[in-house]
Structure formats: C-alpha cells, structure tokens
UniProtKB/TrEMBL annotation:
Protein species of origin: Streptomyces vastus
InterPro entries hit by this protein: His_Pase_superF_clade-1, His_PPase_superfam, PG/BPGM_mutase_AS, PGM_Phosphatase
Name the record gives this protein: Histidine phosphatase family protein
Length: 231
C-alpha cells in the first residue's frame, strides 16, 4: 500500500516498514508547553504559541535529540510544533518540512474549552470517546481520520531516509498517539492504551522485519505530567 493511502483496521499501514535490514527510526516528538496546556484547554487546530517554559523545554529536548543524529525533520505547521522543531533545526542545521497533515485533531466546539467544561457540557460524548467508541469530539474529526492524514505523512518522509536513518516528527499529543496506533497496526479501540505524551517528550518507532515496533514511549528530559488535549 502506498504511503498516501489509508489502511484497514488492525493492519500496519506501511509495506516499507516490512522491508528487513533498513533499520530506520521515527521519533515522534510532542511540542512544548502552551498556556492552554497549563489551563487544560482543548487546543485542537487552534494556533496557540509556546510559553517561555515551553521554549525552554524545546531547547533542552532538542539538545538530546540532536545527539541522536537525525537525518530529517518534519513538523505540523501550527506554531507550537513549528517553533519546537525550529530549536532542533538550529542545532542540526537541518531544514524543517511543515505539513498541515500533522496538525492536532480538529475538535469543533470543544476547542477552547477546559477539561472541566467539556465534561460538564459534553459528558456523554467524552465518556464514549474514553471507552474507545468512534466519536466526533465537538463535531470534529474521528481519531481514525486523524491517522488517515498523519500516518501517510510520516511514512512518506520515512521512506526517504537512508538505511539506519532517523526521522524526527514534531506534532501533537492526540495526533502522535493515533499515528503510532496506525503504524503498529493496532485496532483503533486500543489506541487509548498507549497513553498520552507530556510536553516535549517523544516516542520512538523502529523498523523491524515485521513492520514498525514501539521502542520507547513518553521519553524525555523531565518526568512531566501530561497536560493538554489528549488526557
């Protein structure tokens, strides 16, 4: 199946990931802290900037990620992800490719609401989502639709890597989780089991003979709580 198409439930999206011997890695890195993360407001596609603390998180994490010798960087075009990616680009001299396919889940009327407001106004919808049911949160995207647009972006860029190359993908908590679930071939009902990423933490997928494998999850510089859209 080509990188530009979706996958059926429970099947890995990438045939490229099944080619033994290339040994590529994909690091999926969540953006730094924003004021809406701190306030527990659902950001979605709202273009919220990093706080000063978020910028510092990005700088610290970038130093660690630069030491891994990445070959390419691709990022969501929303400011919080783009500015996070810029910190790694400054250390590696790599260009950043921005792609709107890596944006966070569009969540309609949920966007801008706090966690408590969402539960108070849309409690049944929230509970159904947490149970793993297909829910258009706030009238927005399904999680599978997010994976349909984000996972192919990751695969297109991973395919360009040299053998044993490393791609850094700078995105958002919900989008990263759905992308990991899709690339691992997990049924969407079980994506919640992956857990959320703290700000500026990352997960690592490695390429094996049978496809992509989860090597690390929620790795980072500090043991931070998960704040934001995907809790």
């Amino acid at each position: 199946m080509s990188a530009g198409t979706g996958a059926s439930e429970g099947k890995p999206l990438s045939e490229a990931g099944k080619k033994a011997g290339r040994g590529r890695r994909v690091i999926l890195w969540r953006h730094g802290q924003t004021s809406w993360n701190v306030e527990r407001r659902f950001q979605g596609t709202t273009d919220v900037e990093l706080t000063e603390a978020g910028l510092e998180q990005a700088r610290r994490a970038a130093r660690l990620l630069a030491s891994l010798g990445p070959d390419a960087i691709v990022a969501s075009d929303l400011k919080r992800a783009a500015d996070t990616a810029a910190e790694l680009a400054a250390l590696t001299t790599l260009d950043v490719t921005h792609d709107e396919g890596l944006r966070e889940t569009y969540a309609g009327v949920w966007q801008g609401l706090t966690h408590e407001e969402i539960i108070g106004r849309y409690g049944d919808e929230y509970a159904a989502w947490k149970r793993g049911e297909p829910v258009r949160r706030g009238g927005g995207e399904l999680e599978t639709e997010v994976a349909d647009r984000a996972a192919p972006v990751v695969l297109r860029h991973a395919e360009k890597l040299p053998d044993d190359g490393t791609l850094v993908v700078v995105s958002h908590g919900g989008t990263i989780r759905t992308t990991i679930g899709r690339l691992l071939g997990l049924d969407s009902r079980h994506w919640e089991s992956l857990g959320g990423l703290s700000n500026c933490c990352w997960s690592v997928l490695g390429e094996g003979a049978r496809g992509w494998r989860l090597l690390e999850h929620n790795a980072g510089t500090l043991p931070e709580p998960v704040l934001g859209d995907d809790d």
